[in-house]
TrEMBL record, chain A:
PANTHER family: EPOXIDE HYDROLASE, EPOXIDE HYDROLASE 1-RELATED. Keywords: Aromatic hydrocarbons catabolism, Endoplasmic reticulum, Hydrolase, Membrane. Residues 59-171 form the Epoxide hydrolase N-terminal domain. This is Epoxide hydrolase. Its EC number is 3.3.2.9. It is an enzyme of class 3 (hydrolase). The lineage of its organism: Eukaryota, Metazoa, Ecdysozoa, Arthropoda, Hexapoda. InterPro entries: AB_hydrolase_fold (IPR029058), Epox_hydrolase-like (IPR000639), Epoxide_hydro_N (IPR010497), Epoxide_hydrolase (IPR016292). It is a single-pass membrane protein. It comes from Drosophila guanche. Transmembrane segments: none annotated. Gene3D superfamilies: alpha/beta hydrolase. GO terms for molecular function: cis-stilbene-oxide hydrolase activity.
TrEMBL record, chain B:
It is found in: Endoplasmic reticulum membrane; Microsome membrane. Pfam families: EHN. The keyword Hydrolase applies. GO terms for cellular component: endoplasmic reticulum membrane. This is Epoxide hydrolase. It is a single-pass membrane protein. It comes from Drosophila guanche (Fruit fly). Belongs to the peptidase S33 family. GO terms for biological process: epoxide metabolic process. Catalyzes juvenile hormone hydrolysis. It comes from the Eukaryota.
Length: 463, 472
């Protein structure tokens, strides 16, 4: 009797172990690179028949039609009928109407009055546009300084990627650091900072199916068009995910990948994330524990902060149509993120702490880019296209990045994932740091700190 | 011997597990007693220390200054730079830009040109305002017609709208309710308020005004009008508010009818999962399976459609500001709900809203939000109802003896089965399945909703009993 029972027990456990091991092997095996058309056409249907890609790389004039500014000013001059915030509330219910009123006033009476200055400032970096796969792609091209070249610094091309609701504007203090170089580093960078397709001055796709993987193809093709066969990639937010896609899909082109929002969305990564909630000490050390939320923290974050992503992933045209031609709406919708994502504690402040880390000019520059380029709808479609069954089926998340990678984590970022969870996606993680300050927009908020970490990675990785 | 001990241990552990599971299960699913909430909380501005309630009932007539209509026309005349939909896409990504352009054109060129007519139409029912708990409440109050009063039993009826609806949804059903109709022995004095924070009603000035507080204000409104006992009918938030009213103030409610019978108690959810696999045990006919099951499909659909809910429940002031400053934006956002709540066969069609609702009713409804500037305060209601203060009340687990009637329209948000409803409404008198119709039942098929509501009323057994006690 005992014998039989023990045999069943042992046999059963052995079977479970075998199934578990097989699944684990499957889960942790690197994925297969999906078939992607490097020449897919994303432009309007009409042009498709006789489409011949215009490979010219032309300087791009970002000047805004004065009529647009005049119309904006008159829109901002309309009587504002916002509902007063509830008593005792800061930003807990979203963008506080009293603060929004202040922003609108500043925008109208101060910012627009000196728009000429702002436009000149935006032009201080060189803007270009070229056509990739039917889409006109805008980018900033910043060459390394002469001094840095004279000093014999090694020049690396860098693909610098912004996210939502950001723009290339986030990089205006970061890029000069990258091109000037420093004594701490043997490297200096030639920076290509595109507007993501559908953002800023880059055209959005006319076809469905244009998700992160497809964006990665376009941006890699941009680099190749510009003569950069091998380059480094840096990004946060969507820039981090797109950059990760570029590095995964085109290992032959990517020298190194650095992100301030490293993520592992493969099945193994998700499993390990779950594990890290239960066996926290296996993944997280005492010193940096506060960087990593537990299950409860992540759940409440998802509920509290992801409403925008939910509506953008399901009804981008509705919310896009609500915000296009709606400057105050844009200020509210986009501005809210620069408060809460810089530091969640700012939610309790009546002004959302907006000016603690940014100036109104900085914030309005960024919002203006969305407004004058009319790109809010196409920017939101990245959410719906990237969170689709078709995109998940590509399983790019399961493709490891073979190049050297570096991850840095800023203290008030939305979500961090411990190194232990990243391993199957970043098998070549050579650099991992924690910054005791800063939020979701570090290039914008703390450019010096991000620069130092990025070059430390490049130095360490001997790219 | 050893074998027996090991076996015994395993059974004991297993038993402990099962026992614990049972305890957790009963704790999660047992009915709860009615929570105590104050029926006199002040919700006006400030702390209300010196608040003296104003009990007057004032007449209300809509009279929009022409300048406002002109200003709206100008705003609708701005050159739109809407992004084209993706190739081959209708409304799968949200409200179609080309459709939006067409609506805006109609709104500006045709609708606003006959605004005086529309305003007349709005005013066709008698409307009033009165102050309840510091809030000015707007409501329609239509008495039963003379013929109806002479021949029928007349009862007061509280009619509750939701989001993004308004009292406008009831303009076809109100005359049915107040008039002498062949299909029923009953007629009604209809009270149809604008919810607090909606339409021409005030909004609360501080956090905490949730669906339980709303139920209290509405009940107090009825008391103010001399109705100690009344019927309730509602869909969307109106259904939830009505359910709360029937739960918190059962002594005031003769009967409660809903066209969106949702229930989210743990027990209801568990029963829903069970029902997915054993539906034949709990629904009256296999033809009604699609109304409820499979729950996984329903959750997936809800996920696709609930982005608005998520953002309104967490950042109402952000989205509110955006929709306040742009009538075109407001149109896109609200029209999307009317487009979706048609039926799967037509909801990708450009003509769906026109066919199912007509343009005037939908634009009338949109004008309510626009003219009253109430979109922000309206969406704040979502945030208040996901707050801990409200969810801790667990009202879905509190049974009420009030007679209940439920009508289920095929394409509305998924409802629960009678088996689930009875846990909260043991006195479920009437349950109906419609194989057509959607979320805005009063607007889309008022006659069917009216028939169903009066059928429910007929089943309560009031006929002949105590009718003298009711003041109409």
């Amino acid at each position: 009797m005992t014998n039989l029972f023990v045999r069943f027990l042992v046999g059963g456990l052995a079977m479970l172990a075998a199934i578990g091991y097989k699944n684990y092997r499957e889960l942790s095996a690197p994925g297969k690179r999906p078939e992607l058309d490097n020449n897919a056409y994303w432009g309007p249907e009409l042009s498709k028949q006789n489409y011949k890609e215009n490979k010219a790389i032309l300087p791009y004039d970002i000047s805004v039609n004065p009529e647009v500014i005049a119309d904006l000013k008159s829109q901002l001059s309309r009587p504002l009928k916002l509902q007063a915030p509830l008593e005792g509330v800061g930003f807990e219910y979203g963008f506080n109407a009293n603060e929004l009123q202040k922003v609108v006033k500043y925008w109208r009476d101060t910012y627009l009055t000196k728009w000429g200055e702002r436009e000149k400032y935006l032009k201080k970096l060189d803007h270009y546009q070229t056509e990739i796969q039917g889409l006109k792609i805008h980018f900033i091209h910043a060459k390394p300084s002469k001094e840095a070249i004279k000093k014999g610094k090694k020049v690396l091309p860098l693909l610098l990627l912004h996210g939502w609701p950001g723009t290339v504007r986030e990089f205006y203090d970061f890029i000069p650091l990258l091109t000037a170089g420093s004594d701490k580093s043997n490297y200096v960078f030639e920076v290509i900072a595109p507007s993501l397709p559908g953002y800023g001055w880059s055209q959005g796709s006319s076809k469905t199916g244009f998700g992160v993987a497809q964006v990665a193809v376009v941006l890699r093709n941009l680099m190749v068009r510009l003569g950069f066969d091998k380059f480094v990639v840096q990004g946060g937010d969507w820039g981090s995910l797109i950059g990760s896609n570029v590095a995964s899909l085109f290992p032959e082109n990517v020298l190194g990948y650095h992100s301030n929002m490293c993520a592992n969305n493969s099945p193994m990564g998700s499993l390990k994330l779950m594990l890290s909630f239960v066996f926290r000490s296996w993944f997280v050390d005492e010193q940096n524990a506060h960087f990593y939320k537990g299950f409860g923290g992540i759940f409440s974050f998802l509920m509290e902060e992801m409403g925008y992503a939910h509506i953008q992933a399901s009804k981008p045209d509705t919310i896009g149509n609500a915000l296009i031609d709606n400057p105050i709406g844009l200020a509210s919708y986009i501005g809210e993120k620069f408060s809460t994502w810089t530091n969640p504690a700012f939610k309790t402040l009546p002004d959302g702490g907006l000016t603690k880390r940014f100036t109104y000019d900085q914030l309005l520059d960024n919002i203006m880019i969305y407004y004058v380029t009319n790109s809010i709808t196409t920017s939101m479609r990245l959410y719906s296209e990237s969170m689709s069954k078709a995109q998940f089926a590509l399983a790019v998340d399961s493709l490891p990045i073979t190049a050297k990678t570096g991850c840095t984590r800023f203290a008030y970022e939305l979500l961090h994932v411990p190194d232990g969870v990243l391993t199957n996606k970043f098998p070549n993680l050579v650099h991992s740091t924690h910054q005791q300050d800063g939020g979701h927009f570090p290039a914008f908020e703390l450019p010096q700190q991000l620069y130092e970490d990025f070059t430390a990675f490049v130095q360490k990785a001997e790219l | 011997m050893k074998c027996l001990i090991i076996f015994g241990l395993i059974v004991a552990v297993f038993g402990a597990f099962v026992g614990y599971g049972y305890l957790v299960f009963t704790e999660l699913t047992r009915p709860l007693p009615k929570p105590e909430i104050s029926d006199n909380t002040y919700w006006g501005p400030g702390d209300g220390k010196d608040y003296v309630p104003d009990k007057r009932i004032n007449e209300f007539r809509l009279s929009v200054p022409q300048a406002e209509i002109e200003d709206l026309r100008q705003q609708l005349n701005r050159t739109l730079r809407l992004t084209d939909p993706l190739d081959g896409i209708s409304f799968e990504y949200g409200f179609n830009s080309h459709a939006l352009e067409q609506f805006v054109d109609y709104w500006r060129e045709k609708y606003l040109t006959k605004w005086d007519e529309r305003q007349e139409f709005f005013n066709k029912f008698k409307q009033y305002t009165t102050e309840i708990q510091g809030l000015n409440i707007h409501f329609i109050r239509e008495k039963a017609s003379e013929e109806a009063a002479a021949k029928k039993h007349v009862y007061p009826l509280l009619l509750l709208h939701g989001w993004p609806g308004s009292v406008r949804e009831f303009y076809d059903i109100i005359p049915m309710l107040t008039n002498d109709q062949n299909v029923t022995d009953y007629a009604f004095e209809v009270v149809a308020p604008s919810l607090v924070g909606y339409g021409w009603s005030d909004a609360a000035s501080r956090p905490g005004f949730n669906a339980a507080e709303m139920a209290t204000v509405m009940r107090n409104l009825m008391l103010r009008l001399g109705h100690k006992k009344f019927f309730i009918q509602g869909g969307d938030w109106g259904s939830i508010i009505g359910s709360n009213l029937a739960t918190l103030y059962p002594e005031n409610v003769i009967g409660y009818h809903s066209n969106m019978c949702v229930l989210n108690s743990p027990l209801a959810i568990l029963k829903g999962i069970y029902g997915t696999y054993f539906s034949e045990k709990i629904i009256p006919s296999r033809f009604f399976y699609d109304h409820h099951f499979p729950v996984w499909d329903k959750y997936a659909e809800l996920l696709q459609e609930s982005g608005y809910f998520h953002i309104q429940a967490t950042k109402p002031d952000t989205i509110g500001a955006a929709l306040t400053t742009s009538p075109v934006g407001l149109a896109a956002y609200i029209l999307e709900k009317f487009q979706t709540c048609t039926n799967p066969g037509v909801k990708q069609d450009f003509g769906a809203i026109v066919t199912v609702f007509g343009l005037e009713p939908v634009l009338d409804n949109l004008m309510v939000y626009y003219l009253t500037n109430s979109i922000t305060t309206a969406v704040r209601f979502y945030a208040e109802n996901v707050s801990k203060a409200y969810t801790n009340l667990q009202l879905d687990r509190v049974p009420t003896p009030v007679p209940m009637g439920c009508s289920r329209f095929r394409y509305d948000l998924p409802s629960v089965t009678d088996w689930q409803l009875r846990d909260k409404f043991p006195n479920l008198k009437h349950s109906m399945y419609f194989q057509q119709g959607s979320h805005f039942a009063a607007l889309e098929m008022p006659a069917m909703l009216y028939q169903d509501f009066t059928a429910f009323v007929g089943k309560i057994g009031l006929h002949g009993a105590d009718s003298c006690d009711y003041k109409a």
